[in-house]
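Q: Could you fold this chain for me?
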Amino acid sequence: MSNFDTYWDETEEEVEECAKRLADAERQGPSIAWNEYAIFVIHEELHTAIHEALEIEFDKGSGLHLDLPPAHIKADFAMAMFPLASTLGTSPSELADTVAKYICASDKFRYLASAESIQGYLNIHLNQQRVYQSVLQQVLMLGANYGSNPEFEDERIFIEYSSPNIAKPMSIGHLRSTIIGEVLARLYERSGAHVIRDNHIGDWGTQFGALLYAYQESDLDVDTSDDPIEELKNLYVSFTERAEADPELQERARETFKRLEEKDPDLIAMWQHIREVSIREFEGVYDRLDIMFDLMVGESYHEPQAAYVIEDAEKQQFTHRAENGALVVDGIKRFDTFLMQKGDGTTLYLTRDVAALAYREGLFAPHRILYVVGNEQSLHFQQVFTLTRALELIGTVRVEHVGFGLVRAGGKKMSTRKGRLVTLSDVLDEAVARAERIIKNKRPELEESQQQDIARKVGQGAVLYHNLRHVRTKEIDFDWDQMLSLEGESATYLQYTIARIYSMLEQIEDTQRAMNMEAPELRFDSDIEFQIAKHLSMYPWILWHAVHQHAPHVLCTHLEKLASLFNTLYGQISIKNTYDEDLKKSRIVLISAVVQVLENGLEILNVPVPEKL
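A: Sure. Below is the predicted structure, expressed as structure tokens.
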């Protein structure tokens, strides 16, 4: 048996073991359903009011959305009636007037107290005491599970993310796929799904022909090198520069990859060793980020399956052979022609992706497969999905490309071949070093081990959060000062707020007694307290939007606003010096709920929280 056959069999065993674990796993369902959260009860009551006031049936997804009103409008929520008015062919102001009058005249609603119409908007006033009491009790009862729900409890979600190429360091560009994919996995898990995390390693393709040819020419030994991945990268960059001026070298690289696909034993052994060294390097980064995958299977595993995909495509007459022997797809609507196989018989990224997609559905039977890959691969995935369905290699599984913007350096795309590469390890090291300098200056009384632990969590959190708080589809320009900012709209601001709350709670003697109350009668006497509770009520709704839109930044924005509201409260009210004991206990519960939701959100975002700051 060849080295490749051994690798393939061992990998197949690993994949099948993962599928078995999935089949045997017991789901730990959350303890509350969506419709039990206060914010969704408010939604339901509002839809009921619209239905009964207007005596119409309407689709709840018809464009009617609950929003926060602008600052000059004194209401708790607002809803624009324009979408419904357009459907009914009537005035939005008339609709809003009718619904507002119905709400004001009714005593059937638990949370809706009154409403008013202003220029086509329905402005809603809540029964604030009921909302305040209900929300804080829900946070208190559910704790770390607050915001979780069983919406996807019957679904398996397969997520491909991170996917670095072997023989290259993980760059800051890989961070977006890695952290966005991990956060989506956690969001789906909070919604009851069973998630399969797949790191689809880039370990096959023409570039490895170039690398192996250059490696054979060089005196590099990955076993004795101090930094084998960096040296392999430099070797590849050097060869690429030479090959641009020498077409013969390019041909040698193509020939080497063809021999690799033909399972040349010497090349396979060399390739497999480089692969193993690379994966050890990757795992060190993933350990640092507290990320674990169910599968770390590369493109190479699906290379043998690609032959069946090519055979199917030829049988179903979706293709033709070009004069140079290349296999060209030309029978798929919406697309111009595209390649499935090169003229020399070697496979392509696209063909291997089609094989991988068919294999995943066949073995894991997922309901959804998400590909967290950069926006620039949009056309590629359109071709993969369309071709796979046209060949009837998959059934009803929902497949989706979750794209994201590039991380650029100096306005330019990062490229290993061009030498513009900032490694992820270097970024994390620099972030921690900068955080440690600040902490040593501000907290010299702490032991060195404490300073280092705080610096690690602050530095790493700053880098991760910076990538998550931007709209996923937008590009990010790599900038040390912006990425490592420890102030403002940052993880550090949230971490600092959590530390401040814990410090306050430690100083208040009544904290434990307040938290142990079975059903405290919670009340408030300032607007900022209710605004915080209302924001807490929206957290489950925010998670719903974040998972459905695949938008981590929505959660980031919500947490930042919550922290800002708490810090406003901190500047206005002294909880320690609140002399009304019942009000004091209520305020203790309120800030305890704030810290709980901040920690819940940062856990989803994979941002570590130091005990002190």
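A (continued): The longest helix spans residues 265-289.
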